[in-house]
Design brief:
With 407 residues, this protein is mainly alpha-helical. It has three domains: 8-60, no CATH class; 78-101 and 134-219, Serine Threonine Protein Phosphatase 5, Tetratricopeptide repeat, CATH 1.25.40.80; 228-407, Orthogonal Bundle (DNA Cyclobutane Dipyrimidine Photolyase, subunit A, domain 3), CATH 1.10.579. Helix content is 43%, strand content 5%. It contains 17 helices and three strands. A three-stranded antiparallel beta sheet has the order 1-2-3, covered by helices on one side. β2 (44-51) and β3 (54-60) form a beta hairpin. The chain is globular, with a radius of gyration of 23 Å.
């Protein structure tokens, strides 16, 4: 089914040749197949979502599989819908030891079908391109994931204390491996589940958010292009293209936002705290539709996952399920002062500000002319002036949302 917004959706039953059937189906609908997520030989129901001529989601939802942890709820009744809308915490309470058991699929004779005259396509034919993963510090494959997880387990106890600081080694950095299936989500969750520490509990809750977003997309595939809360599709954003380009190119004049966008553009990764900061800034300071940012992240992130990316953007934009309130608007300066207090992360990606003091680096436009000369950074020449005034932009945002909510 092709909808008015260009999104292709269908649900079909796949057999032994499921992969080929799905690929042929998508190509027949004018879609370029970029990736797929079909695991195991078992027959199952598959959700297919494609947008902008590219496959976004190909997820088996009714079979033995590794992702997600908890099988999506069946046809939603009022009770189950209430569970969905209570959010990720309610989802976490459904987790049991049974959900964390390994799903081992052992090869057996005759398990895989054979077909004469069929040649396995090359990676290039499948749309893959040569990358510089090792240069970016990404150790691929299951061995790379195992090494990362071993390193993180030694740090897990302090996860809750370190996770929000981009200059510190806090996260697990396993998101790209979760995205491509080179690590078992059940193995990760089980390790956290059986650890009594606070750090492990907080990390498990983050894994559950990922599971929760899978479930939301499963039941509401329209969110690939629409707000979970339909009333917010009536929001009318100015969508200034020049502002959007400045955000993409790290020219906003807000150091933490620009440092985060440079990290994304240079490495294909962005720290989770910063994803929230830059998303809030794009929507609620620059007044750009969240879908613009969601698509940019989809193109740039090595760990791009439709459900998680969409869920994160709709959370920041206050349009999603269990999202932050519309009046919660991150202040990019206070976020910088709180989570990069010494400006270490900023200086790494915005070296133009390396001469600024710890206090100046968060809002360099507040320096007077003499201070700018001393720091070697003249605002408007060496580093841009702020694209917008945060306080004024915040007032506009509140009015935009209030207008919609009043209807």
């Amino acid at each position: 089914m092709t909808e008015a917004d260009g999104t292709v959706r269908d649900r079909t039953w796949l057999g032994a040749y499921g992969e080929r059937v799905a690929v042929d189906w998508l190509r027949g609908h004018g879609c370029k197949v970029l990736a797929r997520n079909f695991k195991g030989p078992h027959r199952g129901e598959v959700d297919i979502i494609a947008r902008d001529g590219k496959l976004l989601l190909f997820v088996e939802v009714k079979t033995r599989r590794e992702n997600p942890l908890v099988r999506p709820l069946d046809a939603v009744d009022k009770t189950k819908q209430a569970l969905i809308e209570r959010g990720a915490n309610a989802w976490l309470k459904r987790l049991t030891d049974r959900d964390l058991q390994a799903h081992v699929v052992k090869p057996s004779k005759g398990q895989l079908a054979t077909q004469s005259g069929f040649t396995l396509p090359s990676l290039q034919q499948l749309g893959f391109e040569t990358t510089n993963l090792l240069t970016l510090g990404i150790n691929p494959g299951m061995s790379g994931a195992s090494a990362l997880f071993a390193d993180f387990k030694a740090r897990m106890a302090a996860y809750h204390e370190r996770r929000d600081f981009p200059a510190r080694k806090g996260p697990s950095y396993l998101s790209v491996h979760l995205r491509f299936g080179t690590v078992s989500i059940r193995a990760l969750a089980a390790a956290a589940w059986h650890d009594a520490g606070r750090g492990a509990a907080v990390w498990l809750s983050e894994l559950i958010w990922r599971d929760f977003y899978f479930m939301i997309l499963h039941h509401h595939p329209r969110i690939a292009t629409q707000s979970f809360r339909p009333e917010y599709d009536a929001l009318v954003f100015p969508n200034d293209k020049a502002r959007f380009d400045a955000w993409c190119e790290a020219r906003t004049g807000y150091p933490l936002v620009d440092a985060a966008m440079r990290q994304l553009n240079q490495t294909g990764y962005m720290h989770n705290r910063l994803r929230m900061v830059v998303a809030s800034f794009l929507v609620k300071d620059l007044h750009i539709d969240w879908r613009w940012g969601e698509r940019y992240f989809a193109a740039q992130l090595n760990d791009f996952d439709l459900a998680a990316n969409n869920g994160g953007w709709q959370w920041a934009a206050s349009t999603g399920c269990d999202a932050q309130p519309y009046f919660r608007i991150f202040n990019p300066v206070t976020q910088s002062e709180k989570f990069d207090p010494k400006g270490e992360f900023i200086r790494k990606y915005v070296p133009e500000l390396k001469g600024c003091s710890e206090r100046q680096v968060h809002a360099p436009w507040l320096m007077n002319a003499a201070q700018q000369q001393a720091a070697g950074t003249v605002i408007g020449r060496d580093y841009p002036a702020p694209l917008v005034d945060h306080a004024a932009a915040r007032a506009v945002t509140l009015e935009l949302y209030k207008r919609v909510r009043a209807v």
